[in-house]
Amino acid sequence: WSDEFSNKGVPDPIKWNYDVGGNGWGNNELQYYTEKRKENCRVENGLLIIEARKEDYEGKRYTSARLITKGKGDWQYGKITVRAKIPDGLGTWPAIWMLASTTPLKWPDDGEIDIMEHVGWNPTYIHGSIHCKKYNHIIGTQKTDTVIINDCMEKFHVYGVEWDAEKVQVSVDGIIYLNFKNEHSDYTAWPFDNKMHLLLNLAVGGNWGGAKGVDESIWPRRMEVDYV
After folding, report:
1. Buried b (16+ CB within 10 A) or exposed e, 106-122
2. DSSP string for 95-160
3. Dihedral over alpha carbons 190, 193, 195, 200 (to 10 degrees)
4. Is 17 strand, coil or helix?
């Protein structure tokens, strides 16, 4: 499974679905995620562009997009690499991450892997995390780490995860900075035998992304993805 984004127009519908809506997504985010709307999500010049815009839309003041592979790319174990350039600016919150493909999803019990998270108010830090019932940010036990990438907003870097039945390893440019091991206790600590799917999104504001405000003068902002 791969996408080099060599087509034009909307992302390949054989590979990508969309999460749509403006319900805050559990984090009080400010954007409405649209579907197949070129202003928010398009392929051009060999890149996937996910663009957050300041505009009134469906009762929200910002729009953006959240692409998912659920139903079209669901994997138990594997290696995923995403070459991407992330936006700058106060209020931006881009993410490359995975959720369990269980239906219905029970979060955090069924598992989440954050391959790359970035918040505009902490500009040079790349965050990787895992969440499950025993370890998650709601109860302050999430397994997380950071790496400093000074030019992450100017240049492309390769964000990756490799996982199997024993461990989850999160990396930037091939350098592992988060290593989470299966402690072989129970499902609350290791749901990562579930099949999981990939998500690419750019949120605006929210509990973390907007923790120090949102600069209303910077938009639009975009995340560019070279390949998955």
Report:
1. ebbbbbbbbbbbbbbbe
2. EEEEEE--SS--TTTT-EEEEEE--TTSTTEEEEEEE-SSS-TTTT--EEEEEE-TTTTTS-EEEE
3. 40
4. strand
Q: Point out the residues that are catalytic.
A: 112, 117
pLDDT (tens digit per residue) in 152-197: 999 999 999 999 999 999 999 999 999 999 999 999 999 999 999 9
Tokens 């069924």 belong to which residue? 110
- Please tell me the predicted confidence (pLDDT) of residue 72: 98
CA 57 – CA 64 distance, rounded (Å): 10
Q: How far apart are CA 32 and CA 55, in angstroms?
A: 10
Please, are residues 33 and 27 in contact by the beta-carbon 8 Å criterion? no
Tokens encoding 173: 């440019």
Instruction: Provide the mean pLDDT of the chain.
Output: 97
HSE toward the beta carbon, residue 185, CA cutoff 13 A: 9
pLDDT at 205: 98
Closest C-alpha to 163, from 79, 60, 59, 74 = 79
